[in-house]
Design brief:
This protein has 233 residues and is mainly alpha-helical. Helices cover 59% and strands 9% of the residues. The chain is globular.
Length: 233
């Protein structure tokens, strides 16, 4: 954290058609020193609002749009293939493919919530995935994994940055792709990703540390989806 060193945060148009953010007229850069070139005015507005909302101290953790934009430029822009590979790897052990053997109510909830998303992946992405019970590994069809990877590879760097955060927070590539495509909303995405944890909480009671972790993951999901919406314009 650093002390706030500026009065005003504003959006500026860049000569190449992109948008930037300026603090007292000076352009904001990324942590790695690159130009903060943003694809849409909406995203630039959101980041300027984050800078304007800082008080005596600048707190980077309170600026999710800025952090994701910086990740797109500093990380994805330099290590795109590696980042895409890390996201795609979730498809090989996707949360939605691993179901409980019991009790019946949990089995029902998983099938009711998760199966429509796997059906969507098969129909919309050409990526049917095998479902198993317990912790036994289910090998997935290579063609399906390739189809999921192709969906990622078609995204731009800003979308990839958000998809990376979203997939990690969900623990599921299919769920994150469905959320990114608008197939499922923010609250539904959070509920689907935390279905097992919610079941455990209902049965055994709520633990503060576990609830704090769930809240943090929900915030990651929410900010990643908002970022994707702003990138689309």
């Amino acid at each position: 954290m650093t002390k706030r060193f500026y009065k005003d945060a504003s959006v500026v148009a860049m000569g190449d058609g992109g948008f930037g953010v300026a603090l007292d007229g000076r352009p904001v850069g990324t942590p790695a020193g690159a130009a903060l070139r943003l694809p849409t005015a909406g995203l630039a507005d959101a980041i300027a609002e984050e800078w304007a909302a800082q008080e005596k101290l600048v707190r980077p953790h309170s600026m999710p749009m800025m952090r994701l934009a910086a990740a797109a430029i500093d990380r994805v822009g330099r290590e795109r293939d590696a980042v895409v590979g890390q996201i795609a790897a979730y498809g090989g052990s996707d949360l939605l493919c691993y179901r409980a053997c019991g009790p019946g109510e949990l089995v029902r909830r998983q099938a009711e919530t998760w199966q429509p998303l796997l059906d969507w992946a098969e129909e919309a992405l050409g990526a049917p995935l095998a479902v198993t019970t317990g912790v036994t590994h289910a090998a997935q069809p290579p063609e399906s994994l390739s189809a999921l990877a192709a969906r990622l590879e078609a995204m731009d760097d800003f979308q990839i940055a958000a998809q990376s955060q979203l997939t990690a927070a969900c623990g599921s590539l299919v769920l994150s792709l469905a959320a990114a495509a608008g197939r499922i909303g923010v609250e539904e995405t959070i509920a689907a990703s935390q279905l097992d944890e919610e079941w455990q909480a209902e049965i055994w009671g709520r633990d503060k540390d576990a609830e704090d972790r769930r809240t943090a993951l929900a915030a990651e999901i929410t900010s990643a989806i908002r970022f994707l919406e702003l990138v689309r314009g």
